[in-house]
């Protein structure tokens, strides 16, 4: 807090993140675990990106969006984990007010683009399977860039709005956040001014960036499932469901953790459950995505082998 102020006139200039543990003996162990998770996530996602760039067979709309998703996963984990690693190695758990808002902005920016891209990928699968004759024109290179750009613009607008409205709140009392990164629910609980407008904006954002995309994804895959079931070839059905299954797994993890993260806005006190959901959302999900997308995809597996062995792709 401002050292020159006291009582009700004090102003919070920094927050204290309680982090994941209060036991000093556990910090080195958690440091190693999170460091390995961070290295695995960055390495795995950049490997996917390198495979997509190096393999001509993967120069398709689906893998264009997957490459962007890999970059977003690296960004999402980089927003939180490096700071967590620093806190594990230091007794100083404080984070400046400005740094907290910056972390909040970039987290919501990247997570929002992630949300829209998952929706675009579902639409891409719908066009590829249900509208194959018009797929190349309805998912041209220009349209791909436009969809990715619109995802960034919408997410930037939301992240900026949420951050600016949070910056108008007064923080004049407790400054301890029972979490390992700054997010809206925890900041709302610490505010000594009304958060009604902020919660309403978050509700609108959740409807626009959460519920609406999830409905579109569900509708898209409903049409995809109906079309796939009409394929007579068992091998064709297996290939289609394999591609869509990977995407649906990622969607389930992303939206599942997101829903639990923001369902607790009305709770008086944050709990360790929030930290567990936060780990799933910011660490586990970005780390698993490369595995999920490459596990049953022979094209990606072949491209990865060629990247690591530096062999040229077949002409």
From TrEMBL:
Protein name: Olfactory receptor
PROSITE patterns: G_PROTEIN_RECEP_F1_1, G_PROTEIN_RECEP_F1_2
CDD domains, per database record: 7tmA_OR3A-like (cd15233)
Family to which this protein belongs: Belongs to the G-protein coupled receptor 1 family.
Main location: membrane
UniProt keyword annotations, A-Z: Cell membrane, G-protein coupled receptor, Membrane, Olfaction, Receptor, Sensory transduction, Transducer, Transmembrane, Transmembrane helix
Source superkingdom: Eukaryota
Origin species: Rangifer tarandus platyrhynchus
